[in-house]
């Protein structure tokens, strides 16, 4: 299959730095897509934590059984955290409520931070990829000057300015990745703190109710 002449001409002019710039632009699209997916996930966690307040409020104003009746309305990523504690507190499942809730809480924390390391890695690597493209472009420019036997600032500056585009693109993609990484980390930490406060309060209420039952049994 023969390619059209125009396409052959474009492909013939492609250099390694052009391919690196195209790669970095594709990485930029991937960074945005990953950040959007993580933001949607954190949004689901936020809504789930908001609904979990009603479960804890039911235990605070009533009993753990009251919290268990509210629990079916709780949906989303944090539901297993409170379901694990309440099920063990009510004797439906064997085990320690506090340990079960903390274990499920760690799973939620891991899910919130999943794949965000890719953003941090991209932010660290892209400037070097761009610099590599620039170095290759400068080397190619000087090689062409040597072969043609022509020099001068006007000729050199054109090749170097084109080569520096790779560095500029690499820095731009790195900044994008670092900003999104820090934003996701900040949101994850805040949500993890909010979830931890709710878990601590429910554990306290479970232990208080257990002690109250033990005291009445002793009497």
Give the CA-CA distance, first to last residue. Answer: 93 Å
**How would a crystallographer describe the biggest sheet?**
none
- Please state the structural category: mainly alpha
Number of strands: 0
- Shape, please? rod-shaped
Low-pLDDT stretches: 6-12
Query: What is the overall pLDDT average?
Result: 86
Quote the beta fraction.
Answer: under 5%
Tally the helices: 7
Description of the structure:
It is built from seven helices and no strands. Residues 6-12 have low confidence and may be disordered. It is 86% helix and 0% strand. It has 219 residues and is mostly helical. The protein has one domain. The N and C termini lie far apart (93 Å). Helix 2 (16-61) packs antiparallel against helix 6.
Which structural traits does this protein have?
single chain, 219 residues, mainly alpha, 7 helices, 86% helix
Give a short synopsis of this structure.
This protein has 219 residues and is mainly α. The chain contains 7 helices and no strands.
Write the layout of secondary structure elements.
Layout: H1 5-13, H2 16-61, H3 64-70, H4 79-89, H5 97-113, H6 117-148, H7 153-218
